[in-house]
């Protein structure tokens, strides 16, 4: 039986797709990390807990309402719950109660707890967003490291191919007696060295891929790879701003600073809650209860009063208010207030420390961008000069005016210069993106 051409093409396309290795873009890596990072999941659960705490605080401000019922039997001398008389008999009784209570005033502690719960939910959101920002930076750095290692590998492979061509030509010249065999051995040594550098570069690519895969919590390291794309140094005017301007801008939106500020607010709210224990607590209550007993007889007819009738006859309502005035509690309230004051000071100090850390990071990033920019420019100039020197050496070598050792040294210097350019380029790109990130510019590689 022959299958239709369309089905054959469909099956062939599926086979090809399954056989191809997926290539991850930077955006895919970042999104995947956000969705699968275990720490992010833990912080998201903390955020859910904070939202539940807000519900608890709101519920504490509402009146409670509870129903209770009980049934019991007594044999011998017992108190009849409906008549309050002692009787010697077997008594079966049922009682029920419905009650509600409400805290009218407790030093505004419930109000402060509700506000604190709202603030805590916001603080946990700040912490979660800050973690996502850090993960995004780490993923971008690991991604760029793979690209850097891949470019270095391509350079070594291209150099190796060129060296093999030189080696074949030199072998012909040696066979013809035009150049000494030492030149051939020298180029063979250069080719062997490049083979070793290729192996090392392949290992660096593998290690950097594994590093990124671990960040993404992907265990299939062998089949994990990123897309074959290259990035050039993007245009940026970030250095038109001073480091102080960048720092002041970062203070307005950085999630870690907002989180520290929220912790100060939480500590102050805890202090208000602790102070609320100095005040009296006023609460109100209302209860409805009723009961039934199989020993409750009608005094006129002598008949047992029915269950429903007893519930109406024996019911009652109690209500009232209660005030609790703290006089002496073994210094527990005072000590709690003092601990809260200490927590406020610690939170304020932590905020100052976080601001200093941010300022240090911004200043360091600013210096890094300047230094790596100069290093990249210097590496490009060095590479250009060494390529010119190599071209000149190649002309001399081809003309028989330079030995293989000197020619090999010229090529090695080009190799080193190209490796320095690649390293400087990606270091510069990453530092540039970090500094822009502190200024509020999203990390996007073009």
Widest sheet, order of strands: 2-3-5-6
Radius of gyration over alpha carbons? 40 Å
| Low-confidence sequence ranges | 1-20
Provide the structure class: alpha+beta
How many domains make up the 3D coordinates?
2
Helix content: 55-70%
Overall, the morphology is elongated
Task: Give the full name of the CATH homologous superfamily of the largest domain.
Answer: Outer membrane efflux proteins (OEP)
| Multimeric status of the protein | single chain
Distance between the termini: 51 Å
Strand-residue fraction?
5-15%
What are the secondary-structure elements, in order, as H or E? Answer: HEHHEEHHEHHEHEHH
Question: Mean of the pLDDT scores?
Answer: 86
Number of helices: 10
Short description:
It is built from ten helices and six strands. It is of the alpha+beta class and 446 residues long.
Characterization of this structure:
- The chain is of the alpha+beta class and about 450 residues long.
- The chain has 2 domains: about 25-60 and about 105-280 and about 325-440, Outer membrane efflux proteins (OEP); about 65-105 and about 280-325, no CATH class.
- It is about 65% helix and about 15% strand.
- The protein has 10 helices and 6 strands.
- A 4-stranded antiparallel β-sheet has the order 2-3-5-6.
- A hairpin with a 6-residue loop joins strand 2 and strand 3 (about 85-105).
- Helix 3 runs antiparallel to helix 4 (about 110-175) and helix 4 (about 110-175) packs antiparallel against helix 7 (about 255-275).
- The longest helix has about 70 residues, at about 110-175.
- The protein is elongated and about 145 Å long.
- The two termini are about 50 Å apart.
- Mean pLDDT is about 85; it is low at about 1-20.
- Pfam families: OEP (PF02321).
- InterPro entries: OMP_efflux, TolC-like.
């Amino acid at each position: 039986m022959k299958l239709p051409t369309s089905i054959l093409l469909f099956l062939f396309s599926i086979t090809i797709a399954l056989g191809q290795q997926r290539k991850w873009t930077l955006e895919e890596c970042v999104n995947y990390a956000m969705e699968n990072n275990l720490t992010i999941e833990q912080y998201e659960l903390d955020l859910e807990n904070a939202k539940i705490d807000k519900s608890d605080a709101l519920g504490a401000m509402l009146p409670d309402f509870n129903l209770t019922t009980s049934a019991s039997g007594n044999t011998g001398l017992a108190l009849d719950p409906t008549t309050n008389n002692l009787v010697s008999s077997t008594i079966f009784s049922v009682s029920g109660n419905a009650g509600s209570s409400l805290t009218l005033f407790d030093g505004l502690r419930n109000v402060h707890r509700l506000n604190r719960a709202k603030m805590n939910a916001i603080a946990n959101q700040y912490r979660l967003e800050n973690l996502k920002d850090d993960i995004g930076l780490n993923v971008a750095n690991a991604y760029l490291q793979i690209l850097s290692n891949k470019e270095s590998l391509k350079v070594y492979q291209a150099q190796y191919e060129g060296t093999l061509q030189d080696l074949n030509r030199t072998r012909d010249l040696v066979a013809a007696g035009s150049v000494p065999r030492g030149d051939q051995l020298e180029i063979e040594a250069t080719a062997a060295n490049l083979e070793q550098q290729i192996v090392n570069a392949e290992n660096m690519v593998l290690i950097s891929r594994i590093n990124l895969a671990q960040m993404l919590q992907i265990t299939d390291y062998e089949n994990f790879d990123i897309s074959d794309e290259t990035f050039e140094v993007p245009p940026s005017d970030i250095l038109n701003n001073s480091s102080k301007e960048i720092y002041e801008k970062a203070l307005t939106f950085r999630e870690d600073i907002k989180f520290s500020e929220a912790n100060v607010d939480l500590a102050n709210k805890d202090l208000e809650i602790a102070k609320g224990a100095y005040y009296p607590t006023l609460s109100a209550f209302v209860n409805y209860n009723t009961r039934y007993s199989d020993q409750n007889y009608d005094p006129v007819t002598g008949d047992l009063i029915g269950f429903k009738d007893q519930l109406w006859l024996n019911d009652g309502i109690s209500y009232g208010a209660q005030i609790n005035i703290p006089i002496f509690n073994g210094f527990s309230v005072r000590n709690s207030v003092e601990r809260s004051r200490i927590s406020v000071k610690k939170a304020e100090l932590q905020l100052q420390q976080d601001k200093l850390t941010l300022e240090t990071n911004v200043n360091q990033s600013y210096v890094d961008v300047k230094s790596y920019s100069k290093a990249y420019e210097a590496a490009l100039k060095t590479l250009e000069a060494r390529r010119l020197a190599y071209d000149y050496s190649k002309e001399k070598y081809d003309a028989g005016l330079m030995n293989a050792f000197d020619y090999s040294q010229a090529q090695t210097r080009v190799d080193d210069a190209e490796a320095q350019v690649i390293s400087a380029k990606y270091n510069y790109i990453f530092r540039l993106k970090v500094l822009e990130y502190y200024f509020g510019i999203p990390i996007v590689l073009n």
